[in-house]
Amino acid sequence: MVLSKVLIANRGEIAVRLLRACREMGLSTVAVYSDADRNALHVLCADEAYPIGSGPARDSYLCMDRIIEVARKARADAIHPGYGFLAENPLFAQACQEAGLVFVGPKPEVQELLGNKLAARRMMARAGIPVIAGSSQEEDGGDLLTAGQRLGFPLVVKAAAGGGGKGMRVVRSTEELIRALPVASREAQASFGDGTVYLERLIEGVRHIEFQILADHHGQVIHLGERECSIQRRFQKLIEEAPSPALQPELRRRMGDAAVEVARLAGYTNTGTVEFLLDQDGNYYFLEVNARLQVEHPVTEMVTGIDIVKEQLRIAAGRKLRYAQADVHRRGWAIECRIIAEDPEAGFVPSIGRLTSVIEPSGPGVRVDSGIYEGFEVSLFYDSLISKLVTWGETRPEAVMRMQRALEEYRIAGVKTSIPYYQRIFRSMRFLAGRLDTAFLDQALAAEEDSQDHLEAAAISAALVFHRRLSRGEGAVSTPASGNDDGWKRSGRWRGSQTWNT
């Protein structure tokens, strides 16, 4: 099949990313936009752009019929859904097929199978791939309170459909479970149209590790290595890196083989990720499959040199993968920060408004995937992700130092962003040492900052005592006394000297 025109059924930075890949491949592009996105960057970058409804996503980017109607009108060959919105909706993939359009992603029946976490867990368990102990219809008769007593606490309540932390609750007692079940079910119903929830044992101190896979329609499946995704807030990833500091070659090989086997079992095609939890003893457990392009795909591109979006389009056109597993070689280290329009100092509340200034970092080893520009209006209708900052280095320390430099250079005025919060994370000793887990932000970072507060308080107290001693003539300094060389000046020179020396 020959593709010549692709409709991008998304918005923001990922739509811009997809449009650029299409342009480099010589493909014409079609954008769709809501009323709120009339002047968005993806609209300006596309060859053609069509309105599809008002601001709320349910009235625009989630309207399957309108998007397919635009594709027909524009005579597009294919639809790329990006991530979010309709990317993992099997009904949309099926509707594209029925309209004679290529859906750039896995087949609808595969999406349906993997979109239900309970069904996916059962399939993996039957194949001998480790899964975390959880509730089951066979053992518990569908009674989640009975399942909770059997499994023991702590537990995680999870939505059977969807992801992104929606419908998830940690519970540590029967009383908490009773309260959490209806709340999680309602949230899952509102987010995914399916209120089914289930239970899993909570393993604490784990890392979240995912493997990027590529699979064509000719039976070839490969992985592009892992990404470390443990820096999360409320089950939402904030920072990702490749490779993981935790994986040694043998464990990487076993987990990579398992990821490929998962894809083969499901009859997977196109790109996606197989996600695992890794405990402190080196045991890994299947978590889920994200049947789409991932937000954090750039870090894998940076270390492998493989353009994942272009591979998606080639696979969708029926071509064979250009790479065998032995052809995949990784070099260096890459880290990504998701730049979100939220105020970390106010509990991460969304920050909306017009951007009055945008200065993006650049230089060796720096990549910015962005959907913003000076004058852009950050809307309340959509996800708060506005850009992704990625750095690469020969080593992890070099990638970290480049990220520290890039975060300092990145200037966004008009809304609050997560940039200052990331600067705090990149000063954390535990982060710098690569000692990560999914509770890092809630526990390790908070503990380090509390310890730092105590150190600062002790330093201030010591300085006050020192000044009082000087003012009473009890202290001795190495500078000669003079008629106007009082205690304030002497303590000031002392503080300046200490600061300069450090």
Question: How is the secondary structure organized here?
Answer:
Layout: E1 5-8, H1 12-24, E2 28-34, H2 41-45, E3 48-53, H3 64-74, E4 78-80, H4 90-98, E5 102-103, H5 108-115, H6 117-126, H7 137-140, H8 144-151, E6 155-159, E7 169-171, H9 174-192, E8 197-201, E9 207-215, E10 221-233, E11 236-242, H10 249-266, E12 270-278, E13 284-290, H11 297-304, H12 308-316, E14 333-340, E15 342-343, E16 349-350, E17 353-354, E18 357-359, E19 366-370, E20 377-378, E21 385-393, H13 396-409, E22 411-413, H14 419-425, H15 429-432, H16 440-471, H17 487-501
Parallel strand pairs: 1-2, 1-4, 2-3, 4-5
Antiparallel strand pairs: 6-7, 6-8, 9-10, 9-12, 10-11, 11-14, 12-13, 14-21, 15-16, 17-20, 18-22, 19-21
Helix pairs in contact: 4-5, 16-17
Description of the structure:
The longest helix is centred in the last third of the chain and has 32 residues. Helix 4 runs antiparallel to helix 5 and helix 16 runs antiparallel to helix 17. The C terminus is likely disordered. Helices cover 39% and strands 23% of the residues. A hairpin with a 5-residue loop joins strand 12 and strand 13. It is of the alpha+beta class. It has 17 helices and 22 strands.
How would you describe this structure in keywords?
alpha+beta, Dna Ligase, domain 1, 8-stranded antiparallel β-sheet, 5-stranded parallel β-sheet, 22 strands, 39% helix, globular
